[in-house]
Design a protein that fits this description.
The protein is of the alpha/beta class. Helices cover 29% and strands 28% of the residues.
């Protein structure tokens, strides 16, 4: 099958950790699709990968117009949450979408609407706070974050229920910061890994620094139950991830309707090919479970171009 992997940050050469993370995910997926016997192409601003066919994005051509020219049999998109719905609509007008629908991506990208949808369905969430708590409850902490965004960007901890026009405030819960990575296909929900997030809390801000993949916990069944229910409520498809704070309950705090950086570690510890599973999610044939071996810890600061990706 001809597959086009459309990763936004590396295609546009955005620079910084955005491009490094994007290219690391792109490299992982292109190699996996190729190892599964597929022909793979990808857009790039210059650097080339060891596998796959590079499509140069230049001459004033934008990402959307590139997607409108897709001739592959299937496409997997990795793009900022707020841009996903529009790009997915273009993809679905051209070829088979290997990820979530535009509607599901739009809902997942909106932290206010997705949190409310999950809460209505009984999924534990970090509750939306729209007014200060009574003084007799003491000095409480809250999480202020952009209504759309990813990777803990713009997230801060505050003692005040005060947010900008494009921000929301949720209750702060103490606990272990985890993420779940899974695939949803025709046959249902396939758990991949629970991951421990490496978070820097300096200066009252939360900054994602990397992941431990997998993170083994005796509460795995409880976490997976919440993740599967959330995925069904939001209508996620293909590879997706949900972040949790594991305390008294597994509180869902963020949803990613697309591949996440945890996929880098997953590819190192999972015997199955992640690319093959993504294709099977769309066209059928998902296994009942995956097989993991070992552990991988990676940090954003360690991501860099390999010698064959120049």
């Amino acid at each position: 099958m001809d597959i086009f992997v459309a990763e936004y940050a590396s295609a546009l050469g955005l620079g910084g950790t955005h491009e490094l993370e994007g290219r690391a995910m792109l490299s992982c997926l292109v190699e996996s699709f190729a190892s599964s016997g597929h022909e793979v192409a990808y857009p790039t601003s210059g650097p080339r990968l060891k596998e796959g066919k590079p499509i140069m994005l230049g001459g004033g051509r934008d990402f959307g117009s590139l997607l409108q020219s897709i001739e592959a049999e299937a496409c997997l998109l990795i793009a900022p949450d707020g841009l996903q719905p529009h790009f997915l609509e273009i993809i679905e007008g051209r070829t088979a979408n290997l990820g979530s629908s535009p509607a599901a991506a739009s809902l997942a990208a909106d932290k206010l609407l997705s949190t409310r949808a999950l809460a209505r369905s009984g999924v534990p969430v970090a509750e939306i706070v729209d007014r200060p708590d009574p003084v007799d409850k003491g000095c409480l902490q809250y999480v202020v974050k952009p209504r759309t965004g990813s990777g803990s960007e713009g997230v801060r901890i505050s003692s005040f229920v005060r947010a900008g026009p494009e921000e929301i405030v949720t209750r702060y819960h103490e606990g272990l910061h985890l993420s779940t990575s899974f695939i949803v296909g025709k046959e249902g929900f396939l758990p991949l890994t629970i991951n421990r997030q490496l978070i820097d809390f300096a200066d009252g801000k939360m900054r994602y620094q990397g992941s431990q993949v997998p993170y083994r916990t005796p509460r795995a069944a409880e976490i997976w139950e919440a993740a599967e229910k959330a995925a069904n409520v939001l209508g996620l498809r293909g590879y997706a991830g949900i972040d949790f704070v594991l305390g008294e309950k597994p509180w869902a705090v963020d949803v990613n309707a697309r591949p996440t950086t945890s996929i880098i570690g997953i590819a190192r510890v999972m015997k199955e090919q992640i690319g093959d599973l993504i294709v099977r999610a769309r066209f059928g044939g998902l296994p009942e479970r995956v097989h993991l071996e070992g552990e991988s810890i990676f940090r954003k600061g360690d991501l860099a171009l390999k010698p064959d990706e120049q």
